[in-house]
DNA sequence: AAGACATCCAACCGCGTATGC
DNA sequence: GGCATACGCGGTTGGATGTCT
């Protein structure tokens, strides 16, 4: 027996919302609220819509102060940081970005940010980059040669996908890792500090990610969850400030998140690593051996050594091909 | 100019969880 | 405790639009 449908699909309208429907829904909710019952709401206001559809429409578009498009570089970084640490928990990520909806962020991640990070250029980026190259080439022909080189440098190197990584170049300075062209491993900002509120948030979400490990290495990183064979020595996670809610622990107004620590996140979050084959050039067509990949994941423990003993321990555990599901 | 292809994003779907009885 | 119902979430789809060949 299947799940009962939430509404009668035969009589319910689907597809894009008309301005009239939007107006009805918006004015009703503004005046009366949702009444705590989305299922009954469409009937009350005479909409032939499913309650779930009304809820979605309100939350994603009609609600006040919703922002669409135009993600800033800081928003990019926050999304990336949280994604690496907690995964695709869009509602939590959205809670850290005022005016953004989980659906919006999810779409943005799937259609743009992921490509931006993992090296697949959008055609827009490709065109932009091609244009820049043409400009530079033209400039090369003659007295402009010197200026062209400078401009090219300013816009990024001539390697693939660089044009789309401006935010990252701005955000990162070099660390002793072997750079992967077009990847987020290209550089880091050693001077950055993790935002404390995000640390708290990540604690609250289960000690996830790099920030946790840096501050409290005895806390169990999420990669160990449900993996008895990988469990570190038993220890208790320090109590998270019980008063730290997602709301008050937000990152509004916070600074940028540290790329160095983002990369450290790859040491701890196997779930994320599993999804990053293409990022590391480990697709089915060109699998890399562990010896090739290991220096990228745990680059000679350089990061760990500079961070904490706990990091080193985790890296040693991770530093086995089987632990990352690799050959 | 037109067809093919890529991109974007609004909306839907189904599952897990919370809540009330 | 068990059940029914509603909510919230993340994954996915499909159509509109833009761009390329």
UniProtKB/TrEMBL annotation:
Gene Ontology, cellular component aspect: nucleus
Region annotation (Disordered) ranges: 119-152
Main location class: nucleus
Residue ranges annotated for the HTH myb-type domain, each copy included: 9-62, 63-117
Matches recorded under SUPFAM superfamilies: Homeodomain-like
Keywords: DNA-binding, Nucleus, Repeat, Transcription, Transcription regulation
Subcellular compartments: Nucleus
InterPro entries for the chain: Homeodomain-like_sf, Myb_dom, SANT/Myb
Pfam (any one): Myb_DNA-binding
Myb-like domain sequence ranges: 9-62, 63-113
GO molecular function: DNA binding
Protein name listed in UniProt: Uncharacterized protein
Organism field: Miscanthus lutarioriparius
